[in-house]
Design goal:
It is built from 4 helices and 7 strands. The protein is an alpha+beta fold and 171 residues long. It starts with 13 loop residues before the first helix and ends with a helix.
């Protein structure tokens, strides 16, 4: 894939974010290169997670780093949430694809996720708090569900209207 990828923002990104991503059948140098480019974009943009649809590629690949030090990059190919707690937490959530748009999103407090690392080895772990929220957010992207769909229609319309107004005033 030696192609250069870049973050795609609203509204162009919606073509990718509302499409379910396909599983990655083979982990090759193109996929590894894509994963590393995605990590660089995530770090350069100040994010804690990114999914392939956000760079215009509908493949099941996410990159995360929820540490303050930004020194624990987690790459997951074909991630699947295998369990989620019944305990829910509502927190403000943003997205690199909708810069500056913050919405109150309810997510499970804990999840178990499994997938493959960049070497094709199976990885499985439990995450909680911000890490669980980030996993849910990125896996939602792979399933064609942007975070803005996780709030009520009324709240979504109000916050998007306010966000667009703020963006037009700052343009």
């Amino acid at each position: 894939m030696s192609e250069f990828v870049e973050l795609i923002a609203y509204p162009e990104v919606e073509d990718f974010l509302y499409t379910k991503s396909v599983e990655i059948e083979e982990i090759n140098s193109d996929i590894i290169d894509l994963a590393h480019q995605m990590a660089q974009i995530m770090y350069n943009s100040g994010g804690i997670g990114i999914s392939a649809p956000q760079v215009g590629i509908n493949k099941r690949l996410i990159v995360l780093d929820c540490t303050e030090e930004k020194n624990n990059t987690v790459y997951m190919i074909n991630p699947v949430i295998t369990w989620q707690s019944r305990e829910i937490s509502q927190r403000s959530e943003g997205c690199l694809s909708y810069p500056g748009l913050i919405m109150p999103v309810s997510r499970p407090k804990r999840v178990k996720v499994e997938g493959l690392d960049l070497e094709g080895k199976k990885v499985s772990f439990e995450a909680s708090g911000l890490y669980a929220r980030c996993i849910c957010h990125e896996v939602d992207h792979l399933d064609g569900i942007p975070y803005i769909q996780r709030v009520s229609r009324q709240v979504r319309r109000h916050l998007i209207r306010k966000w667009k107004k703020s963006n037009s005033e700052n343009a």
